[in-house]
């Protein structure tokens, strides 16, 4: 192929994330709700019937469907389905930074307001219960931080002879930071805590 053809193919394309089409894509909403004049954040407790992470604490959200025009629309749809509220009960939905994980997942987080007059009808197949925490609690509480080391283990048929160092190749250990918030016997950690911490850092930076 001629060089001018190579450049012509590349110069007009819009860069994306390598392998984007193969990523699992989801959207979540960090929901505010006014309780007696005080700003609270609403959390879900995942149904104990679920196969993955039953009983964990999370924000409303889930997989982005092909029918969802945008990640924002997916976050709103998932919130209405899980909490049993109407779309008009959700307002001022704005994006946070999205997350690209090493495990082939992209998460699009948003913040938004849920009307204090909303009448919840929880989808019990997905949501065991909900609770709220005052925003001021998080603004005045430092989370605990712990670390998980992820060790790389090649498969038995890995072609060591093809790489410099062979079986003695210096694989880098991947270190993951895990954040923990504790509130009245409930533990908020994992991706939910990461999104929450990112949001709090944005508030404090202003």
TrEMBL record:
Its cofactor is Mg(2+); Mn(2+). CDD domains: NUDIX_CoAse_Nudt7. It comes from Virgibacillus halodenitrificans. This is CoA pyrophosphatase. InterPro entries: CoAse, NUDIX_hydrolase-like_dom_sf, NUDIX_hydrolase_dom. Keywords: Hydrolase, Magnesium, Manganese, Metal-binding. Pfam families: NUDIX. SUPFAM superfamilies: Nudix. Residues 22-156 form the Nudix hydrolase domain. Gene3D superfamilies: Nucleoside Triphosphate Pyrophosphohydrolase (3.90.79.10). The keyword Hydrolase applies.
């Amino acid at each position: 192929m001629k060089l001018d053809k190579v450049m012509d193919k590349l110069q007009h394309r819009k860069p994306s994330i390598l392998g984007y089409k193969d990523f699992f894509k989801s959207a979540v909403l960090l929901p505010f709700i006014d309780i007696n004049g005080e700003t609270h954040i609403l959390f879900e407790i995942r149904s104990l019937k679920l196969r993955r992470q039953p009983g964990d604490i999370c924000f409303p959200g889930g997989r982005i469907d092909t029918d969802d025009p945008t990640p924002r629309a997916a976050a709103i749809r998932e919130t209405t389905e899980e909490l049993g509220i109407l779309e008009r009960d959700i307002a001022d939905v704005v994006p946070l930074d999205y997350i690209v994980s090493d495990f082939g997942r992209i998460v699009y987080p948003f913040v938004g307001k849920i009307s204090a007059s909303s009448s919840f009808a929880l989808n019990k197949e997905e949501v065991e219960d909900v609770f709220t925490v005052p925003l001021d609690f998080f603004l005045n509480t430092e989370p605990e931080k712990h670390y998980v080391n992820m060790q790389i283990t090649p498969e038995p048929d890995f072609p060591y002879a093809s790489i410099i160092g062979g079986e003695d190749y210096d694989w880098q250990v991947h270190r993951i930071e895990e954040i923990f918030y504790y509130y009245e016997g409930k533990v908020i950690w994992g991706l939910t805590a990461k999104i929450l911490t990112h949001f709090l850092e944005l508030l404090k930076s202003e």
